[in-house]
Amino acid sequence: xxxxxxxxxxxxxxxxxxxxxxxxxxxxxxxxxxxxxxxxxxxxxxxxxxxxxxxxxxxxxxxxxxxxxxxxxxxxxxxxxxxxxxxxxxxxxxxxxxxxxxxxxxxxxxxxxxxxxxxxxxxxxxxxxxxxxxxxxxxxxxxxxxxxxxxxxxxxxxxxxxxxxxxxxxxxxxxxxxxxxxxxxxxxxxxxxxxxxxxxxxxxxxxxxxxxxxxxxxxxxxxxxxxxxxxxxxxxxxxxxxxxxxxxxxxxxxxxxxxxxxxxxxxxxxxxxxxxxxxxxxxxxxxxxxxxxxxxxxxxxxxxxxxxxxxxxxxxxxxxxxxxxxxxxxxxxxxxxxxxxxxxxxxxxxxxxxxxxxxxxxxxxxxxxxxxxxxxxxxxxxxxxxxxxxxxxxxxxxxxxxxxxxxxxxxxxxxxxxxxxxxxxxxxxxxxxxxxxxxxxxxxxxxxxxxxxxxxxxxxxxxxxxxxxxxxxxxxxxxxxxxxxxxxxxxxxxxxxxxxxxxxxxxxxxxxxxxxxxxxxxxxxxxxxxxxxxxxxxxxxxxxxxxxxxxxxxxxxxxx
Length: 560
Fold this sequence. Notes:
Layout lengths: L29 H12 L3 H7 L24 E9 L11 H10 L4 E7 L2 H21 L4 E9 L5 E6 L5 H12 L11 H19 L6 E6 L9 H10 L4 E7 L45 H4 L4 H6 L6 E4 L19 H4 L24 E7 L4 H10 L2 E5 L3 E10 L13 E5 L3 E10 L14 E8 L16 E7 L7 E10 L4 E8 L4 E2 L11 E2 L14 E4 L2 E6 L1
Parallel strand pairs: 1-2, 2-3, 5-6, 6-7, 11-20
Antiparallel strand pairs: 1-8, 3-4, 4-5, 8-9, 9-19, 10-12, 12-15, 13-14, 13-16, 16-19, 16-20, 17-18
Helix pairs in contact: 4-5, 5-6, 6-7
Protein name: Histidinol-phosphatase
InterPro entries: PHP_dom, PHP_domain, Pol/His_phosphatase_N, Pol/histidinol_Pase-like, TAT_signal
Keywords: Membrane, Transmembrane, Transmembrane helix
């Protein structure tokens, strides 16, 4: 039995019409409509339709669910989070659906479940979390929910690894974890053999994509400077092992509530960046690298620092921002009674009503940090393509509503130019201009105030080619070249145009912005960064009082 609708005679009621685009949405059975939505999000509808002789248009897979997500210059900017833990993590609490429900409420369009790699997770956890993810995908059609894991990188820190949904998503993640996880393989020490195992793990993921066992896979290194164990040469080796898989690291870590002053908060460092060098740390890193700056990792926040040294090689390497949600600040959750994680691979469902957790350092996904991705449509494949392409900007506290950054030949106002992650190729000596359009915050964020953008900085670096020393973490030709003050009281959208003049060498450009509440001279001096983010105070760093956004770079390459 079920609901029946009148269709044209050529459509058989006994046939599932979900993949037949000649049948409009309004004429589908509820179950068929749900399956069509799932197919669209998985990027499968176009292939199914073409096999039937029809063609799916980009508009068919698009959504305008959130204000500000309307397509702009061909891309829909979708907010997400790729670092989230559930009851299937050894230090997690929540169900998958708890995170999805909150992410949906706080405006996220996509998210990745990344439970900790380890012996129990490798044995049974990957399989056990999958039905929860599948059920959440069916219940929340307007959130793309990836399955991944937090990889214990051999010889290094952690990383997000995730795959495109499909019939082999569990099998590939399980094989990967059992063969390459640093904890499972007892490969945590910083030896050449363990470093090689990490490179082999990334190569394995690329091979699974090429063999078409899975449609796609991505890697992002997590909290890279927290313990100082991700050396520059390891980061370069991950990137170079398969640049289609290893594409970036967290520019800003999760755990942003950890800096809230005790007794109202944990009284630690933002991101729980509160440590110091150890025997396992890379010896070249300065002591400042173990702290955050405006909530951002030292590798990203230092103009002319490690991130810029990677970009100066002319190779893609992108940043993200995430929640790293384990236990949420201000929540009352406790793990379910009689839990046995080692035996069951998960904790029992959480219970509530206990004392408020003021020592927890996390926010719900979407509550504070966002990774905004330029996607051609609302699908898993489009989000992954956008991340790989570097069409990404990140922000804290909803500092701004939207960002569009473009480079073009000066005076060519009818041309849209190229956007984040792209390369503008021009004749040598062509004058170039950078166009920055920002939609200002108009509504209160989740801390219930309307953020005010005070300043926007343009950062330029020269592309100098592969590093002679793989452990270099500075580049001398990168600096802030222009700062724009935002007119107090500005509303709606603002626009800045900066003329770079004739370009005779390859360069990259990136943009950041701030509420202006905490700035200081950057670590490499006033000639490089006269007013950068200030080092966060250990034990007293309210994340809501120091908001920044960062864009990924775009490139300009002259020819002739």
